[in-house]
Write a sequence for this structure.
């Protein structure tokens, strides 16, 4: 199946938008590992970089006369031979200096018909492998990983299939009968270099910010059959996609790049507008289709998404260090900006309407990983790498206090959920809810032990999404 690609004329530096019609991004395609000249096939490279774009693509590769890949044996007087295969031993090429690694698996192939004996195999055979791309991993150094999903032993003389194995079909992406707390849908094959995640106001779309070798914005439709809807790739020199956000009416999706520019797209058609924001961090602003951008020089600017013009701007402080993180209260009345300077953290809280500082907090290190306001902006929650979840009472101006022993695990992504009036945070093994007493009152379980998952929650808490370890999880 071909992949329609629309090049946006407004972008002279070739920002490519891949539109995906219908559910499937790729058909049941099988492509060889190498082209006739011995180089990696182009679609193999694309699938390694973005497995979710090619969910049905399989890579074929033939190995011959390499005894390290199989063990030939027989039983019952050579009437029932079998081949034990070891795909992880296959010598695979590098891809841009990064090795391609095959996941270890043990498979025993037996004859597909009567009459296949040791003598048949001794006459010469080869193994044709089928691999499914899993993407980039970092557990044993950077490597692109594939899994063997099929193998065919065939005669090198006649081409006849002697033995065959094909992996069973993968589990369904969505299963409404999964136990409480478990994700309803688990979409594998997304990038492990996700920097940010956003959920549309209606809970029907997910945007992923991805850096690495192929910087891009990916947009997923998460209905009963979640799938990649379209993606936009950016040049590597753009610095990758740092943050994504939806407008409050769900009409636009934005991507902030490492070079500071913000790119706005129509959710459905992908129509593009470049905003010269010079930003370092971004956050959707409630009401009015605006995005809040924390700048390289410490400014905070509210941009109108309709036309890419400035609504208002908060000035930089004297030191002019870059904005690192932003938070805005659910009622839109208070803004917090975090910046790091001289191994310290400075947090400024602004009154949105009056555009003046109402509180300022200084911490003796630079280990703040996330901030989030409660509904009215009375409290600012801080995810600290060492101390866990801290709570800062804005009116008091005092140092933040620890929430509880449960909050000690909240060291990364945090978010205020208006419908439940509580703070949520990512922890090893899931996403937990902390109430005003610091007690854990709710938990969503993930398939990964990583605490560095990114998650987003709809305002009504009816839908939650998380991206971690190559999976997009949906509750």
């Amino acid at each position: 199946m071909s992949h329609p690609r629309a090049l946006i004329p407004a972008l002279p530096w070739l920002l490519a938008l891949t539109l995906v019609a219908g559910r499937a991004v790729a058909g049941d395609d099988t492509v060889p590992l190498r082209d006739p000249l011995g180089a990696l096939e182009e679609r193999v490279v694309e699938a390694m970089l973005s497995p979710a774009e090619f969910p049905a693509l399989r890579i074929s590769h033939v190995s011959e006369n390499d005894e390290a890949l199989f063990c030939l044996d027989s039983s019952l007087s050579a009437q029932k031979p079998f081949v034990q295969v070891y795909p992880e031993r296959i010598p695979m090429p590098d891809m841009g200096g990064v090795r391609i690694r095959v996941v270890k698996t043990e498979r025993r192939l037996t004859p597909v018909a009567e009459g296949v004996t040791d003598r048949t195999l001794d006459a010469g055979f080869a193994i044709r492998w089928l691999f499914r791309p899993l993407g980039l991993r970092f557990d044993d150094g950077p490597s692109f990983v594939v899994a063997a999903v099929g193998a065919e032993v065939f005669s090198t003389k006649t081409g006849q299939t002697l033995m065959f194995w094909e992996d069973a079909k993968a589990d369904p992406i969505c299963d409404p009968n999964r136990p409480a707390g478990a994700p309803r849908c688990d979409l594998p094959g997304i990038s492990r270099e996700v920097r940010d995640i956003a959920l549309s106001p209606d809970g029907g779309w997910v945007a992923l910010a991805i850096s690495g070798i192929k910087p891009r914005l990916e947009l997923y439709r998460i209905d009963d059959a979640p799938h990649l809807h379209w993606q936009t790739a950016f040049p590597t020199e753009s610095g990758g996609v740092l943050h994504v956000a939806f407008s409050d009416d769900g009409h636009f999706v934005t991507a902030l790049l490492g070079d500071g520019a913000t790119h706005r797209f129509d959710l459905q058609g992908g129509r593009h507008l470049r905003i010269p924001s010079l930003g370092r961090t971004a956050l959707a602003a409630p009401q009015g289709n605006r995005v809040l951008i924390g700048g390289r020089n410490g400014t905070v600017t509210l941009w109108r998404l309709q036309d890419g013009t400035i609504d208002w701007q908060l000035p930089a402080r004297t030191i002019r260090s870059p904005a690192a993180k932003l938070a805005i209260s659910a009622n839109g009345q208070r803004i917090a900006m975090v910046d790091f300077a001289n191994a310290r953290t400075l947090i400024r809280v602004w009154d949105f309407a009056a555009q003046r500082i109402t509180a300022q907090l200084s911490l003796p290190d630079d280990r703040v990983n996330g901030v989030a306001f409660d509904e009215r902006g009375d409290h600012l929650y801080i995810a600290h790498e060492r101390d866990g979840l801290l709570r800062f009472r804005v009116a008091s101006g005092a140092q933040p206090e620890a929430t509880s022993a449960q909050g000690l695990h909240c060291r990364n992504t945090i978010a205020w959920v208006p419908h439940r009036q509580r703070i949520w945070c990512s922890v090893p093994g899931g996403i937990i809810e902390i109430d005003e007493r610091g007690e854990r009152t709710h938990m969503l379980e993930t398939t990964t032990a990583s605490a560095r998952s990114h998650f987003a929650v709809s305002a009504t808490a009816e839908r939650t999404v998380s991206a971690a370890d190559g999976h997009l999880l949906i509750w």
User: Anything to note?
Assistant: The chain has a mean pLDDT of 85.
